[in-house]
Design brief:
The complex is a heterodimer.
Chain A lengths: L2 H25 L6 H10 L1 H15 L7 H17 L5 H25 L4 H19 L4 E2 L3 H8 L1 E4 L3 E4 H19 L1 H11 L1 H6 L4 H27 L1 E2 L7 H11 L11 H21 L5 H32 L6
Antiparallel strand pairs in A: 1-4, 2-3
Chain B lengths: L9 H17 L7 E3 L2 E3 L1 H24 L7 H15 L5 H25 L4 H20 L3 E3 L3 H8 L1 E2 L2 E2 H17 L4 H10 L1 H6 L4 H27 L1 E3 L7 H11 L11 H20 L6 H17 L1 H11 L4
Antiparallel strand pairs in B: 1-2, 3-6, 4-5
Helix pairs in contact in B: 1-12, 2-7, 2-10, 2-11, 2-12, 3-4, 3-5, 3-10, 4-5, 4-10, 6-10, 11-12, 12-13
């Protein structure tokens, strides 16, 4: 694929977002403001963070169904550590990042050493993390630590009454970091190679085992970070929080133009995919009369549109390659 | 062609018996069954009855997985069909209600099959679309409310009994027999296994892989519709948010426990149903033993891991070296 067709899916996603934003701005007079955009960032920060990790996993040809449960576990763990055990919040943050990273490493190792499908291993991880958070507490625990109220007030004030909150800042940092890691480092190149072909990647001398374990470690660690942000956002820990977020994250990655078969995709596309999902929610809350289930149907339609679009472009690319090489038969 | 016995299955049946024995230790009345008002009651009957929706789902899922596919949408399809059945039940006769709900399930299955077989989309992704959108559609049908109904005919499918057996059990057994007849009574099962083992080779050998894929997803949708109707009839209502929630995972788990390979090409219908019963027996056992129901998920996770490790190609190699060749 040449440079233009490589960027086409991301360009299409960005166009959909801009058109959507334009439609919203024309429908609702107060929509087109920095404030709405900043709220979009804050409200979807936890999803954006976890979707960056999912992008790595999906580009490598895998899937991680455990992230929603890891977020839920992290919020419960933080609440209990800070409120009941008296762990200082920053130490609790570090602890949960280590725990979730180890959890991801264990899943990656299981996938790699036992040659199991990522789908089912992370499904077990999903049960395990959610079950563990249920065992710790089934009630919502408020977090009253000073750091939490302090961080909640902390925000970069922008013109027009807009506030760049801490969760939004963390998300932007993660997206930027993800872009650097995926597009500019050797690890990133290995992730793409792994999604293209595992066997060829191994034959090229890439340490496939290490890369796979690192990918799932990254995804889980980002889910842990997302849990921290989620607990900041809600100032509490609840074992039922972030149920189904893995689906939202996968949807954001697909809408962002990443191929689910692996080997192709951009972190920026995922970021726009998250914003599109946020935009749908914002439209529904601005409208007031639409019910929340329209968000699910709209997301489903978008998913279908983008997957269909991918199939068509892939089919065209294959056909033109066949023509170029003199045409092997179907 | 005669019905083929499953190649392996002792371990699943033993596992079920062990879990039932543990339940018996935990609660000595576990195997007590009494007849009251022409219907059997007891913990064992309860396991069969509560396990019915997952067992029905697994009958569709097992064929999909045998083809190297997966259907994530069955929980959402259950919600859609339950919502349709519950909203029509009080104003239309039962055949119309059933036809509408089953038709919707068939349409959902055909949609999934179309995406997979005709458009060539990966099964996880193709069925993810309906998994996300389906619950929204179900909420659209119920307008976000919990729809209740009073129709005794529909309620019979969930709470009634035939010859003393609760209707869900009878429906499950009938569906199992029907599936066995269609799939194992003809060459269809062989063709499904061939498609799952190597779709390209099967197609070159003259198997209509596209049509078979379409049909199997449609069948899975139909099973989901039946499960949705049974679940709605059981609670005399439809809750679009919670009906069938996470049941796709239980169904996949049941199929995997039943020894069907996730890599396609090998499946057992009976053992998938046994798998569903194992899951339900664990649920019931945890409830009976007085452990908090939250333990359930952790136990399930451990079981998935154990089954996965047992299926793992690497461990299988190790095992055959240690214990000699097995199955």
């Amino acid at each position: 694929m040449n440079a233009t067709s490589r960027l086409l899916p991301v360009a299409a996603t960005t166009a959909v977002f801009l058109i959507g934003f334009l439609i919203c701005s024309l429908t609702f007079p107060n929509f087109a403001s920095l404030r709405v955009v900043m709220n979009l960032f804050t409200d979807n920060a936890f999803l954006g963070i976890v979707a960056v990790g999912m992008t790595f996993v999906i580009i490598s040809g895998g899937i991680d169904l455990s992230v929603g449960s890891v977020i839920g576990f992290s919020t419960v763990f933080l609440a209990i550590a800070i409120e009941r055990w008296g762990v200082p919040p920053l130490a609790a943050f570090a602890l949960i990042l280590v725990i979730s990273a180890l959890f991801g490493a264990a899943m990656g190792a299981a996938i790699e050493y036992f040659e199991l499908p990522p789908f089912i291993v992370t499904l077990a991880g999903m049960f395990l993390a959610r079950g563990a958070s249920f065992l710790m507490s089934t009630e919502s625990i408020p977090i009253t630590a000073d750091l939490y109220s302090h961080l909640a007030e902390q925000a970069l004030r922008l013109p027009g009454g807009a506030r760049l909150t801490v969760p939004a800042m963390v998300m932007i940092l993660v997206v930027a970091g993800g872009m650097v890691l995926l597009h500019l480092t050797r690890f990133g190149a290995n992730v793409y190679a792994l999604g293209g072909s595992r066997v060829s990647t191994a034959l090229m001398g890439v340490n496939v085992t290490r890369t796979t374990v690192l990918i799932y470690t990254l995804s889980s660690a980002l889910a842990g970070l997302s849990g921290i942000v989620f607990s900041l956002y809600t100032s509490s820990g609840y074992s039922l929080s972030a149920v189904g977020v893995e689906l939202d994250a996968i949807a954001a990655v697909v809408i962002g133009g990443t191929l689910l078969s692996g080997g192709y995709g951009f972190v920026f596309g995922t970021f726009v995919g998250v914003l599109i999902q946020g935009l749908i929610q914002t439209y529904i809350s601005f409208d007031g009369s639409l019910s929340s289930w329209w968000a699910k149907i709209a997301t489903g339609l978008l998913l279908f549109a983008f997957i269909g679009f991918q199939q068509v472009t892939l089919g065209l690319a294959r056909r033109s390659r066949r023509h170029a090489t003199g045409g092997a038969h179907a | 062609m005669s019905l083929r016995l499953p190649r392996i299955g002792t371990s699943q049946v033993v596992a079920l018996l062990v879990i039932l024995a543990i339940n018996w230790v935990v609660s000595p009345q576990f195997f007590d069954i009494r007849l009251q008002d022409g219907r059997l009651f007891g913990s064992l009957i309860d396991v069969l009855n509560r396990g019915a929706p997952v067992a029905i789902l697994s009958l569709g899922m097992v064929l999909v997985i045998a083809m190297r596919g997966i259907d994530l949408s069955v929980g959402a399809v259950m919600a859609i069909c339950g919502a349709i059945a519950a909203s029509l039940a009080d104003s239309y006769p039962l055949p119309v209600v059933l036809a509408a709900a089953l038709g919707a399930g068939l349409a959902c299955g055909l949609w999934n099959g179309f995406l997979v077989a005709v458009l060539g989309i990966q099964p996880i992704v193709a069925t993810l679309i309906l998994m996300v959108a389906g619950r929204g559609i179900a909420q659209l049908i119920t307008e976000g409310r919990i729809v209740t109904f009073t129709s005794p005919e529909l309620a019979f499918l969930g709470g009634g009994s035939v010859l003393g057996l609760p209707t869900p059990i009878v429906i499950t057994l009938a569906l199992l027999a029907l599936t066995l007849l269609i799939v194992r009574g003809t060459a269809l099962g062989l063709l499904i296994e061939a498609t799952g083992g190597n779709a390209r080779a099967a197609a070159l050998a003259g198997v209509g892989t596209r049509l078979i894929t379409l049909a199997v997803y449609a069948w899975c949708g139909l099973c989901a519709a039946i499960a949705g109707i049974v679940a709605a009839a059981d609670i005399l209502g439809a809750d679009a948010n919670n009906a069938g929630l996470w049941l796709e995972l239980d169904a996949i788990l049941a199929v995997v426990i039943g020894g069907t390979s996730l890599f396609g090409g090998r499946f057992s219908l009976v053992l998938a149903v046994v798998g569903a019963l194992i899951i339900q027996a664990m649920n019931t056992g945890i409830l009976l033993s007085g452990f908090p129901p939250e333990t359930n998920l952790v136990v399930k996770a451990v079981v998935v891991l154990a089954v996965l490790l047992a299926q793992s190609p690497r461990l299988a190699g190790l095992g055959s070296n240690l214990f000699g060749r097995r199955a």
